[in-house]
Amino acid sequence: MTKLFKNLLARFLFQDKGILPTKKFLLIYLIGSICLVGLAFFGVSWQTVFIGNVLFILTSLMDLLRSPRKKYISITRHMPNEMERGKCYQVTIHFENNALYSCKYRLVDGIPQSFQSQFPIEGEINSKTRSSISYKTRASVRGDYPVNKIYVRFSSLMGLWEKQIVVEQKNAVKVIPDLSETKRYLEDAQRYLMYDGDKIRKQKKGTGEFTRIRNYVIGDDPRKINWRQTAKLQEVMTNEYEPEHGKYITILIDCGRMMGVELKIGNRLEKAMEASLTVVAAALKNGDYVGVIVFSKGIDVYVPPAKGMDQLQKILQAIYNVKVDASESNYAAVMNYLQMVQKKRSLILLFSDIHTFLHDETTLLYLKRIRRRHLFFMIGVEDEALLSEAQQLPADVHRAMTKSMAQQQVLFKKREKAKWESQGLVMIEAKEEKLAVEAVSYYIRVMNQGLI
Amino acid sequence: MSKMITSKKTVVWLILLLLIFMLLSYFLVSKQPEEYPSYVSNSPSPTGTKALYTYLEEKADSLDRWSHPPNLLAKQNEGQLLVMVEPFFVPERDEMDAYTSFMEAGNTVLLLTYNPDGMFGMKTDPIMKEADGGSVIRDSNGNEYDATLNSSVRIREEPDDAVLLKDSEGIIALRKSIGEGSLIVANAPNWLTNEFILDEDHLQLFFNLVQGDWNTILFDEYIHGTGHAPTITTLYPKWLLVIGLQALLLTTFWLWYQGKRFGPIITPRESVVRFGNERIRALAAWYKRGSNYRDSFAIQADYVKVLLQEKWAIPYRKDWTEVTDLLKQKSVHVSEKDINSITKLLGSESITKQEYVHCSKKLDQLRREVEEG
Predict the structure, then answer these.
(1) Residue A2 forms part of a structural domain
(2) Where does the sequence pass through the membrane (chain B) (predicted)?
């Protein structure tokens, strides 16, 4: 009931349609008021004061007649349906004025709050013309967003009173993860790994299965020369070998509570998402089968393994809208599920928060069982805040306490990690900007060694 | 859709109910007893003067209430008596002038007020005695009367004035000649109220004051009018009021300009962000509250020992006394004394806050040397 009233009040007074005075009006009115006060010193009558006020307000309201009627204004918006997180996109708004009067306008697009942009946009449009306005925007949070309204204020060229209208323009935007790392990898894998990684990881050549025959170049192993083809084509040809393709990779992405922790840019889940997509791209390019499971309390998304670059789109569309869950992640459930759906031997990459993972004692049991069939690897984002707190100067009691607590956590993590690694379960923590590189490097290393 | 219709219906019903309630309450409230101001000639309440008015209505030839501004008083008709009982406000100067010219034309004004100071240029003196009722009053002929006096002032006499009544403290009533007429002033309006008019000698005293033959007796109700109190327009200068009015209008427009929402509603992002150090902060606060300095210090020492093993290969299981010897070979900047104090502190049962902070700093120095080389 009160909500209804509130809505009505909000609508009438503060939101959506309406008219309102402009800054110019206020300024002129202020000057007029000062004049009136001056006149009052010389004993002008109350009648003059009242008539002066009323006349001024009424004549200023005439200005509204000189601005276009609401129905003569039409506005449409064009914006991309899919935006990558953190990338700049252009949105165009077509403004059409069919009225006899020209007008000045200000415009705020009702894009979601997490989109960054500069509003209001100001401009001027002549009568019976169209114009296009465009602005740049950047989405910083993934997800599905409806974009419904455009808020416009316009006034006559004199601009004493403004009319405000709200135009319904329904668009829907998908904000997908930042794919720049994936693209960089796909463009030139070698350079990507060399540029970012500490060590250069090559895809190992010369071992494994035969792939193709190509021209011999200096530096190739002479033992690999294919003499039969050389004789046939009158050119030195050589055999090329590569590690076996068609392996199974399963990527587990945790979206539990601790993945929502803020990093320098975005949060842990964002980073995990981008890194996993890069690994997916790398594996798919290599001709492997890739499946993805997103989990928190239960299983949120499961994309069954498949190969080919189409799978990348499929995975992207399945996981782009994953949000951080408020509950603690349930590792046992996902391990159980994994055993059920993934019968073939595969490389399991778990993106999660290592600290939470180590605290969950039941997981070890499941992992031991999983390890019999699969190769397990866990990767998390290094907690920079924790490390810096462990190294801060203990200037007072509070800081000393915080420091000791941080050190306790670091020690705990170190010891538990050592314990688990002795069981053959590898887990690493990477710096947030190195996460994707580390994950891809590990994948390549495993493939080169032919571990699966 | 149906939900909206029902909600609209409820709104209509609610407004109807509200209207009914308002009407009812209006009728109920209007049954309340009428309120009469004090000293009004048509007020039957104990504080009113209706009793005297009704009595005079029977006795006097012509009696009326006067509720118009004084400039409309008939000046030619001599022999009029205007009775002013406790005016609610001091009339303005032009009103005062009108009264004066009324008197100058040969009429009389009887002014009864507790403190006539400022009316028609009267002056009063405060008295020491508490004004607490009964006293003995003498008139100019020496006759004595009993009366209740509530005024805490006495009227100051001027050379041409004729004193009518006085008591031991001073003058209670006097007559001042103004033009052809006169002004009679007394400081006891309570004599005329319905409640007290028959007490003691009040009625007699009143007739004493208004001795004479009057063509018309008027009871001034203009001075009891509520609309004639000084208004806001007379209290403040016009320019200030114009400033006020313009400021009010400007503020309204400014609020209109500022308050209208332009764009979508925004919720602050802080409400959805979480930070990674929540756990550490909570634990630290817990340890601090429990003064667990010893445990906290042990953790720090443990951390350094792990570092010593990792970086300098000093075995972790060796205790601090053995570590001291090995550290000497590494030529660290932390003195032996400091390391000894750390060792001592680790062995002690309880640690004070000062020791804790001091030794934590020493440990940190050692940690820095080990970790950062």
Answers:
(1) no
(2) 12-29, 239-257
